[in-house]
Write a structure and sequence with these properties.
Elements lengths: L1 H24 L17 E5 L7 E3 L4 E9 L10 E6 L11 E3 L15 E10 L9 E23 L24 E11 L2 E10 L4 E3 L5 H6 L2 H4 L4 E7 L5 E5 L7 E4 L1 E5 L1 E8 L6 E24 L3
Parallel strand pairs: 2-16
Antiparallel strand pairs: 1-3, 3-6, 4-5, 4-7, 7-16, 8-9, 9-15, 10-16, 11-14, 11-16, 12-13, 12-15
Length: about 300
């Protein structure tokens, strides 16, 4: 009897194990959720090696060049990328404090590496400081430029889910947005009464600062207090099923709160909604265009040496 019970027990264990193995191999039974990834590159800029050099004697002339590359998904027009060189004080002469791009910095595509440009801040920078010992000088390079992100996905419109689409779940997946530092990192739907709500989250996925596109880069660089109020703001255009409106603000002062699909929004959550009533459930495309200015900085230290 004991042997029969053991055999029966073994059979049950094997049966359960086989079900688990089969379940793990069936796509519909997988519970692992894929995390969306984002290409957050836009403009990259840095000093050219040895221009400036890491060490230089006073009274010795040297060049200062930067190289700008567009690794993102938006064309930057001439004059729309502004670069500032600071930290110089009275330590160097014959140096420009601001330059802009002269050419179109084309976006990166599957067949194009993206636009590049070399920008000159100085051909013969020179220091005349009366040094008795080495003096470290930190050059701060700041870029402020127009950029744009486009995100496209599908949403489910209706009062309930069906075999066509599902109201529940995360709608953001990898490769739904153009390469850029500002991304929509989450988008979900919920039904409250007869109102279908879409809530999406705008995130700054890079290390720079975002400002509304009507901001002045000169004022941002100067630390203007009023311009600081434009930080973490951007312009949004939402294209989707007719009837949706979003809680945004007007693009112009006094930035009044309005329900629209084209206006001023902020980094964070954006709410859009429409009355669905008895509308038949269907899939609808959703496109969000975000326009903004982006500011980022890098630093290079050079050592000024006394005359040998």
């Amino acid at each position: 009897m004991t042997k029969k019970i053991n055999l029966s027990y073994l059979f049950v264990i094997l049966a359960i194990a086989s079900i688990l193995v089969i379940g793990a191999s069936v796509p519909g039974c997988q519970t692992t959720k894929k995390t969306a990834t984002f290409d957050t590159l836009a403009l990259s800029f840095s000093f050219i090696p040895d221009a400036p050099p890491e060490q230089v004697e006073v009274q010795s002339a040297f060049p200062i060049y930067i190289e700008v590359k567009n690794f993102g998904g938006y064309d930057v027009m001439p004059g729309k990328a502004e670069f500032y060189l600071s930290g110089i004080g009275n330590s160097l002469t014959s140096v420009s404090k601001k330059e802009t791009n002269k050419n179109i910095l084309e976006k990166k595509t599957d067949i194009s590496l993206g636009g590049t440009e070399r920008i000159t801040f100085a051909k013969t920078a020179i220091s005349s400081l009366p040094l008795q010992s080495p003096f470290p000088l930190s050059l701060v390079l700041t870029g402020c430029y127009d950029y744009q992100t486009i995100m496209q996905t599908d949403v489910c419109v209706g009062k309930k889910s069906n075999e066509i689409c599902d109201l529940a779940g995360e709608k953001i997946e990898s490769n739904q947005s153009t390469a850029a530092p500002i991304q929509i990192t989450s988008l979900k739907e919920q039904l409250i009464g007869n109102k279908l709500q879409i809530i999406f989250l705008i995130s700054n996925k890079a290390t720079g600062e975002v400002y509304s596109p009507d901001s002045s880069c000169d004022k941002i660089q100067a630390g203007d207090i009023d311009e600081k109020l434009n930080q973490n703001n951007l312009w949004l255009t939402i294209e989707t099923d007719p009837g949706f409106v979003c809680e945004l603000k007007s693009k112009n002062v006094p930035y009044s709160s309005i329900k629209t699909t084209d206006g001023r929004g902020a980094v964070g959550a954006i709410l859009c909604e429409k009355d669905v009533l008895s509308e038949e459930t269907h899939v609808a495309p959703l496109k969000v265009t975000m326009h903004y200015k982006y500011k980022q900085s890098s630093t290079k230290q050079i050592m000024l040496l006394p005359m040998g």
